[in-house]
Amino acid sequence: MKQLIEMNKIDIAKGDIGFNFTDNNVIKKLVVDKLTQTQLINGRLAIARLVIDNKGESQYAIIPASVAEKIAQRDASSIVLHSALSQEAQDEEDPYANFKVPDDLMW
Q: Where do the structural domains in the chain lie, given as residue ranges?
């Protein structure tokens, strides 16, 4: 897990927006930029807990959602925040998003 998180963590530019999340019922805060905040909310990025020593000390890493899904399959407790991909974000990737199906379509 540790190697997967370290290899895929995203180094973000220092922003001025505090992004709050919870980890074991404790509110934590990361300082991010606007783009990273939007991607965390939309589900394109996730936050993972990275244990750095045997005493239980940990830090947080921002990783892509695809990596977070792989980590969650192995150890779900390592993923602290992973929002479901919003409908708007899904629509951006859909090549047929501009072609709406009419409500009165008869087969």
A: 2-93
Distances (CA, A) of 86 to 35, 90, 92, 93: 15, 6, 10, 11
Three-state DSSP at 18 gives strand
CA atoms within 13 A on the CB side of 79: 23
> What tens digit of pLDDT does each residue of 51-95 get?
776 666 778 999 998 888 888 888 888 888 888 754 555 555 666
- Distance of alpha carbon 85 from alpha carbon 48, whole angstroms: 17
Look up residue 48 and give its two tokens.
Answer: 């993972």
Contacts of 28 (CB under 8 A, 6+ apart): 20, 21, 22, 60, 80
Distance CA 17, CA 35 (A): 10
